[in-house]
Amino acid sequence: MMEAVTLAQVAREAGVSPSTVSRILNGTANVTPEKRARVESVITRLNYRPNPQAQALAGGRSLTIGVITPTLNSTFYGEALAGIEAALNDTPYHPIVISGQWRTEREQEALDLLLARRVDAVIMMGGILDDQILTHVARRVPLIAVGRDVRGLDHSCIVLDNTKAMQQVARHLLDLGHRQFAYISGAERQQDAMERRVAFLDYLGAHGVTVPPELIQVGRYTEEGGLEAAEAILNAGVPFTALVCANDQMALGARLALYRRGVNVPGDVSLTGFDDVFTSSLMTPPLTTVRQAIYDIGLTAAREALNLLDGQPVVRQVFEPELIIRESTAPPVRPRPEGRARQGVKTMSTPDG
Amino acid sequence: MMEAVTLAQVAREAGVSPSTVSRILNGTANVTPEKRARVESVITRLNYRPNPQAQALAGGRSLTIGVITPTLNSTFYGEALAGIEAALNDTPYHPIVISGQWRTEREQEALDLLLARRVDAVIMMGGILDDQILTHVARRVPLIAVGRDVRGLDHSCIVLDNTKAMQQVARHLLDLGHRQFAYISGAERQQDAMERRVAFLDYLGAHGVTVPPELIQVGRYTEEGGLEAAEAILNAGVPFTALVCANDQMALGARLALYRRGVNVPGDVSLTGFDDVFTSSLMTPPLTTVRQAIYDIGLTAAREALNLLDGQPVVRQVFEPELIIRESTAPPVRPRPEGRARQGVKTMSTPDG
DNA sequence: ACCCATTTTGAAAGCGCTTTCAATTCGACC
DNA sequence: GGTCGAATTGAAAGCGCTTTCAAAATGGGT
User: Fold this and answer.
1) Residues of chain A with pLDDT > 70: what percent?
2) What count of Cα atoms within 13 Å lies in the side-chain half-sphere of residue B252?
3) Is residue A34 in some structural domain?
4) Chain B residue with minimal CA distance to A139?
5) What is the distance in angstroms between the Cα of B203 and the nearest Cα belonging to chain A?
6) pLDDT tens digits, residue range B21-36?
7) Closest nucleotide to residue A11 (Cα to C1')?
8) DSSP state string for A2-68
9) Domain that holds residue A40
């Protein structure tokens, strides 16, 4: 709808060859200051902006970085995206985001699409695609994995120390005096879900506490999943004083389940999450959780991707978790006799005293 | 890192000219079935995928659609993005998203970037950029505005009937018996924030109810803003039984402020939001709000953009709001004597209060 | 069988840029 | 002042595709 200015026009206008303009644009070679000034003034006068498609074609680089996120409408991954965007902001690169929907075939499609688009690098956030496929892709294009370990791509992984994180949660609750726990896990095929569950149960075990199998439920990392899992746990009829969730979203769902049963948080049950999604600080009560510096993780991921592109060495990054204690956890106060609760309300009972 | 297959290779392999392959790819002209079959088999055998950059350069279209969203980590806009992604999914087009951060200069940058990237169309979600700038841009590239009216671009706007929506909220609360209201507004420079506030106050006024100015606060559409606004309202010392928020995010913040003051929802105060963000159904208590079919709005926006690209006529779309009554609203039971709220006491409301 | 109007096809010219490669200019030095 | 190496510049060949344009193949009619 409007003729765009081309490099050739700039060159003509400035009385130099296209090559020279290109060199100035890319800093590829020395140019007389006088000519440089001339060209630059023409560029601003004409408001010239190089055509990325042409640059991509001629330069063999698309100047785009593909990002695969599990979902677009999540506060958690959204913040990672914000970090990536910020990191790329003053580089010539640009993110191009596709969601994988937690589905293998969708992730595969996304990957194919990105490769077809000739992205210069790929950032894979989470995801359930096989390590094997990822290592294979990594041979074609620089790849950074976020929130998961990929066998054979150790350097390009950015992960959180899930084990340490869960140990902090467990210790916090143990310190408060809790001995009866329930646990809501993420989808088991996701690596970090496994890590978190194992870390939690092991730590408890090491301190002489075991969790009854009925009180361990899978919540698929979603709010609905957390809600259903919490209901299943409440229905089990086994007493517990602390409910630990493998992420904040499930904690939110669980919170509603507890609310509906009239279970007071943290009065009757202490509740914890994982991630420190922004809205967790606004829950009623604000949620005790483990902070993942997800924005920074996104930032780092993008920077690492750029390093990879530069041929610079990258190194596996492990982010340290930070326990954020808010108001959803408290000592297990009053022992509450079984069956005392209002009608229709399943009750928790007696902490060990 | 791996030699990509080119159209020329396919042509050679299939014993036809590049032009023919191109024609088959784009359906630009008839081709003998026999040749078509031959070429297609070669394409699948070689797993050929056209280079989008080359297509863009030669075809004059970049096959991308620029999307400007206020922020990347919002459930609300995230869902719109999901809708856009879905709509574009089986078209050759692809979204490229930039966030505007509610800042004029940032939005302008985003727009410039998209134009520099030669996007074929632009979808502008919300935003505070001048109508004038947008109409100007719209002359260069097809533009769809979401959630705002742009003077002179009526056809390309997709909006919600904010007035009707707020009237529904007001009526609902009025019907419940509320007469004393407080209101938390969005940032005033945003069009819909104005529309909602005016609609709400006017409707109330028409029914003989006025809202004291101290009970009208601006919350910038953010959670923190909502929290602060609610505190200001509580500090005003003027009694009210219903707190109406111009979006769900502010309602979430306000909820926390109420919780901290020991104000029971909906026992002491009824709370309403706007948007029906996914997590609103999981608040404690689940939030009464107005549903914007934001995913569908995203879907529609993308389709309209495609229509615009096809040169087809587009028409202004007005989405109908739907009041979603949940548990955060109830009749105003006990009149609350001034200043009764317990300092520092946190009470959860229970369902069957 | 022949002619002419259609279809189908291929050759070739770009799209806007980068990047050799070779030519030109410059400056330092003898 | 002339020579040589280094620095600067321009011509031209692509990058992988689309799209005229004209040539070749087809087929219907007589």
Assistant:
1) 94
2) 25
3) yes
4) B1
5) 31
6) 999 999 988 899 999 9
7) D10
8) -PPP-HHHHHHHHTS-HHHHHHHHHT-S---HHHHHHHHHHHHHHT----HHHHHHHHS---EEEEE
9) 7-50
CA of B17 to C1' of D23 (A): 14
A1 with B97: Cβ contact below 8 A: no
Same structural domain for residues B171 and B155? no
* Alpha helix ranges (H) inside B47-148: 52-59, 75-88, 104-116, 131-140
Residue A97 sits in the same domain as residue A128:
yes
* Residue B192 in domain: yes
pLDDT of residue A335: 54
- Judged by CB atoms closer than 8 Å, whether chains meet at A74 and B79 is answered as no
Would you mind telling me the total number of residues written for chain B in this entry? 353
Q: Do A81 and B73 touch (CB under 8 A)?
A: yes
* Number of domains forming the structure of chain A: 3
List the beta bridge partners of residue B185: B218
Beta strand spans in chain B (E): 64-69, 94-99, 121-125, 143-146, 157-160, 181-185, 216-218, 242-245, 270-272, 289-291, 317-319, 322-324
Q: Which residues contact B243 (CB under 8 A, 6 or more apart)?
A: B181, B182, B183, B184, B230, B233, B254, B258, B269, B270, B271, B272
User: What is the CATH number for B79?
Assistant: 3.40.50.2300
In a domain, A125, yes or no: yes
The whole-angstrom distance between B75's CA and the closest CA on chain A is 5
Domain stop point among A245, A272, A288: A288
The answer as to whether A280 is a domain residue is yes
Assess whether A104 and A37 both reside in one domain.
no
Contact A219/A183 with Cβ under 8 angstroms? no
Q: Is the pLDDT of residue A347 over 80?
A: no
